[in-house]
Amino acid sequence: MRTRFTELAGVEYPIIQGGMMWVGRAELASAVSNAGGLGILTALTQPTPDDLRREIDRCRSMTDKPFGVNLTILPSVSPPPYAEYRQAIVDSGVKIVETAGFKPQEHVDHFKAHGVKVIHKCTAVRHALSAERMGVDAISIDGFECAGHPGEDDIPGLVLIPAAADKIRIPLIASGGFADGRGLVAALALGAEGINMGTRFCATVEAPIHRRIKDFIVQNDERQTDLIFRSLRNTARVGRNGVSQEVVRILSDGAASFADVQHLVRGAQGREALEAGDVEAGLVWAGQVQGLIHDIPTCAELIGRIMHDARAIITDRLAHCL
Ligand SMILES: Cc1cc2nc3c(=O)[nH]c(=O)nc-3n(C[C@H](O)[C@H](O)[C@H](O)COP(=O)(O)O)c2cc1C
Fold first, then answer.
1. CA angle, 310 as apex, 137 and 315 as ends, to 5°?
2. 114 backbone dihedrals φ, ψ, rounded to 5°
3. Does 55 contact ligand 1 (Cβ within 6 A)?
4. 236 C-alpha to center of ligand 1: Å?
5. 99 lines ligand 1 (CB under 6 A)
6. Region for residue 101 given its phi and psi (left: phi exceeds 0; alpha: psi -120 to 50; beta: otherwise)
7. 196 Cα–ligand 1 center, Å
8. Which of 127, 146, 172, 306 to mutate to test the pocket of ligand 1 (most atoms within 8 A of CB)?
9. What pLDDT, in 10s, does the model give residues 177-197?
10. Using one digit for the tens of pLDDT, what is the confidence trace for 260-308?
């Protein structure tokens, strides 16, 4: 299947594995790339820029196909050394980057100056347009369904994807709520050139997280997520557990602040949950698409199935409607 995205990234299939904190390591990224999609390492999962260099080398030893790196830029009182992570990506010869978060201009300029293609992930048409003006090569647009940060506009993919497709000229990737061939065909029909998946790739054999977390995703249905940090205007969608419910409860008191929930939401606790398989140890990031995830295939099985089903829908079901 050829789209403007497969041409841009030099991959066989228009399927991206989005950056995922603690999950986007070489095991998963290389498996996705080996299966013909675009695997993505998550820069900030590595404790230092030098660790990222080593992780990129490790990924390269596991695949000879293209893979990318995600750089998530979050406002922080003590930000990580973004410029050094960025330099590690450039020095390692990675040719495609997924940026996400606030004010990416400086990073986009640097990547572009070094011949790195940039996919900027965002959650609003106006942000997509501003990233296009910044010179990024593609936009990944995350609908309200998505795991992680859906923004504050609450626009689901069914509206957000075509609204973005109407406005931007560079290739558009649809993100949030995708898990199967139906989703891929729908995304293409809505004007996207491919799909980006997070939660679906967590429930694969190669995802470097505990089996109990994968089972948690499989057992959950589409209703089992919580939106946390709403009152702080930093909304995040996570799989529903005792921790997410407690965060929602505390913040439902309008006077509560981040300090009141900080002890519950530390990244280290989320990491502990993923690695030890203790679903109550911290936040477990997952989207509404849990309701469409019923098994734990390899990445090759998953991508093969998505492509097979997408082709069948296009050539059989849709063709027969005419
Ligand atoms: C466990 C997990 C961690 C994530 N961490 C990040 C991250 O660090 N940076 C980022 O840009 N997106 C992150 N995301 C969002 C994904 O890259 C992707 O945009 C999102 O999962 C798409 O929605 P879906 O889960 O419905 O497929 C994360 C998602 C999950 C499930």
1. 115
2. -110, 20
3. no
4. 10
5. no
6. left
7. 9
8. 146
9. 999 999 999 999 999 999 999
10. 999 999 999 999 999 999 999 999 999 999 999 999 999 999 999 999 9
Q: Is 40 in the pocket of ligand 1 (CB under 6 A)?
A: no
Q: Over the chain, what is the mean pLDDT?
A: 97
Please state, for a pLDDT cut of 70, what percent of the chain lies above it.
100
Q: Probe ligand 1: pick from 17, 144, 199, max atoms within 8 Å of CB?
A: 199
The residues near 99 (Cβ < 8 Å, ≥ 6 apart) are 70, 71, 72, 73, 107, 108, 111, 118, 119, 120, 121, 136
Whole-model pTM: value is 0.98
